Amino acid sequence: MQLNNADIKRENEILGRRAVIVAGATAFALAVVKFAAGLIGGSVAVLSSAIDSMLDLLVSALNFFAIRKSQAAPNAKFNFGYAKLEALAAMFEGVLIVGAGAFIFYESVRKLQTEQAPVDTAFSLYAMALSVAVTGLLVAYLSRVARRTRNLIVRADALHYKSDLFSNLAVIASLILVEFTGFAAIDAVFGIVISGYIAVSAINLMKESVGVLLDRALDPEITAQIEEIIRSRPQIASYHGLATRKSANICYVAVHLVFNREISLYDAHKISDEIEAAIRAKYGEFEWQITTHLDPCDDQNGSCEC
Description:
transport; ferrous iron transmembrane transporter activity; Cation_efflux_TM; mainly alpha; 8 helices; zinc efflux antiporter activity; Cation diffusion facilitator family transporter; 3 strands; Alpha-Beta Plaits
């Protein structure tokens, strides 16, 4: 049985909410394990990773409510809906991640400046190995959901947990080096490296969110394809005022189509509908809001003299 667009949209909404719940539950479990390992083993890198997991839990809770609200229908006050809440939530997540990175950096530097206490690596290594395995499975799951739903929040979560995966691997590497060399300062050095990696990942996420909030145009490849679809209609003399933007999974397009003066309104409207249908068929993974203005001649300079 083939699903229609409404069914696919509904299914994607359910998948997005479920993904955020799974991410939050995973973050909570990993935070408990890491805190126990960090306190028992005395590793600042492990404790830093535990703090990061607690932030993941907070962010997942906020993301769940953001996804539910962003999927609400447009109304008289918000005619275009709440889709940009996804970008706002991702931006807030980025700010929190930068804060976590700054805290990890501070704690690592402070540990370097104080007398180095011995690190018990055995329990910490077991805990971090478990964390890597669980996080790897979570990243694979979130990435698959993000590709299917095109949800910015789920994509942000996938990116965040991917950075967690690499930072967890770095923690394991630091614990192994401490075990074999006996230099506890290595733990703090790796904490500094992890904080930098976390901050860079967050800044990239924030840049993408800003692009959505400022109505950045669609990718040039997609815009070029739209222009090609328009030019392929011989009844269209020219076009102008092509503007595009994307919010969540919805792509917005506005364009003025210039027809020959002799064409009937019915035929011009039919061709316009065909162009819209061709765009939707070409990029069926997105939702489209397309506005076409039908011109009898080129009026981009403010007049319509032929």
